[in-house]
Structures are given as structure tokens and as C-alpha cells.
């Protein structure tokens, strides 16, 4: 029997919830309670958790013949979700002293299987194994039969592998959906909110008070983050390096560092974006973070093409700076004319070298 139970949805629907997840992370009742306490819109988060759990259920039931295929489907689902992709990318960058392949070769034997001492380290090894099994026929079954000390039942081995490896990984991701690590999803929504609905209003405020233009956009971003459940999105709290435009949750163990910069192609040009990269990196180091965010409000008519150390088609662009990953989020802040009258887009390419020329910044 699949170790899953249907659980009531706070809005009256149903979802799948593994018993162990409910015991450790609060399950659906905890989600409903968090919704009641903070007012955070939970529809996206809850839906993502349920869909992730459903894909694990399919993998668990697949048996040896279909395990490799279902593992591929699960990986694709994770990579196609902004929030989940960000979480696994964080896992991949974490615990630099752990090489998953080496760990498996040294700690997964017929006698015993042992895991790294931290949950993140275990998730890193589990994510590596899941990807391996999506390409290796019977890979999960063989691993599971090692755990069971039996070579007689491949389907039982696949289920054992799912329970021992994939289930804790799904649990790890579920527990972190909706936390500050989900910030990329919020920033993606913010970009759409401005470009679709608030572009004209914000630009009018900027035109009326250009001297405080950056503060206008900064305030709007902070307001949005607060509405989305970021409890401490106050402007410019102090750190050792100065003042970051947005630092969320600085009183907690998981602060979010987000710098805001304007770009107009003139006085606010490439060097000003580079300054933002330096500041975001410095604040991240102050707070012991490996990720930071730079939100660029593009007030020019040109399309910004930002450099990336990630995949070319992956949103947003990101650059690695001395152990800190800085996500570059561009927002079209200048009201646009109709598509039929715009003509060919004028693209301005910004290179990583240009963003690294500020003194004190090193790759």
C-alpha cells in the first residue's frame, strides 16, 4: 500500500499527504493554520505541495519497470517550477565539502547506508541519486535491494529506494515551500504585477519626484513583499557594510537580502547596476547568506540583457560572486507604447565583467 493519506484542504478540496510529513512538518492542518495566522495567500504554496506529493505517489507505485520514467517526470516537474528549481539549486550549491557521487561510493554498501549529518546534505545526495536513477535502468531497484539485503524482489527494492531516498527529499522541499527561499516566485509575480498593472502609476510618481525616484520603487517592492507574507521587509536596516534597501527577516535565521537600483541608460547606467551587485554581495556576506537579489527598475526604452552563470533560458539571470549567488531581476518600469508602433527592440547587453569592475568585487 502507498504510504499516503488524503488530507482535507483548507478550502474544501482534498490533497495527498504522507503520514510522516504530517507528523514532522504539520501537513495540511499546519498550512491552514499558517494561512490563518499570517494572511499569506497559500493557494500557490499548497497546490505546489500537493502536486509534488502526487508525483512522489506515482513514483512510489511505479515499480521497477516504470521507475526510471517516473523519476524523469518528477525531476522535470521540479525544474519547471520556479520555487522548486530554486530550492534544489540551493541544495546543489550547499555543503561544498560533500560530493554526492563520492559520498554514495563510500557510504552506500551492502552492509549499511549512511547519510550526511545535516538535512541539507542528505537532500543533496538524494537529489543526485534521483537524477542518476532517471537515467539508470533498475538503478533504484538495486539500491533498494541493498537496503533490504535481498536480491529477490526488484519492485520491493524500488519502493524501498523511494522511501529511503526520494521521500525525505520531497519532505525537505515541502517544508521549505513558502519560506523565504521561495522568494524568486514572489519576485516573478512582482515583475508581472508592475509590468501588467502598476507601470503607469509608479512612473507617474517617479516623474513627479525624481529626486526620490528609487525610494518610490523601493517602497512599492517592500509593500508587495509584506503583503505576500515577508514579515520584515523594512527599508535599509543597518549591517556591517551599510544599509541594504530590503532585508527581510533579519531577526531570524534566514534573512533575505534584496538591493534595489534604477537604470535609465544615463546617470543610472551599467556602473550603477555594478554598484548594486557589490552592495548586495556585501550585505549577503554580513548576514552569512549565499544568495542575494538585485531588482533593477529599467526606466530606459532599451531592453536589458543581463549576464548569467546559469542556463541561458533560465529566469532570472544570476551571477556567482565570491561564494554568493546574486539573482538579477529586471523590471520594465517605463510605460510602453503599443507593440505595433514600437519597432525592433533595442537591446543593451551588460556583461559580467562590467558588473565586476567595482572595487572589492571578485569572482
Lateral arrangement of strands in the main beta sheet: 5-6-7-10-9
Looking at the structure, what is the overall shape? elongated
Low-confidence stretches are 1-42
Which secondary-structure class do the elements indicate?
Answer: alpha/beta
Count of separate DSSP helical elements? 14
What percent of the residues sit in helical stretches (DSSP H or I)? 40-55%
Supply the number of structural domains.
2
Question: Per DSSP, what share of the residues sits in E-state strands of 2 or more residues?
Answer: 5-15%
Q: Which whole number gives the mean pLDDT?
A: 81
Q: What multimeric state do the chains show? A: single chain
The end-to-end span amounts to: 51 Å
Question: Biggest sheet: strands, sense, closure?
Answer: 5 strands, mixed
Structure report:
α3 packs antiparallel against α4 and α8 crosses α9. The chain has 363 residues and is an alpha/beta fold. The chain has a five-stranded mixed β-sheet with strand order 5-6-7-10-9, with helices on both faces. A two-stranded antiparallel ribbon has the order 1-2. A hairpin with a 2-residue loop joins β3 and β4. The chain has 14 helices and eleven strands.
Provide a compact summary of the structure.
The chain is of the alpha/beta class. The protein has helices at 19-25, 27-38, 43-61, 63-80, 82-93, 100-107, 119-133, 139-148, 154-176, 183-208, 213-227, 270-286, 339-342, 352-355, and strands spanning 4-8, 14-18, 238-239, 242-243, 246-248, 256-263, 291-298, 303-305, 317-321, 324-332, 347-349.
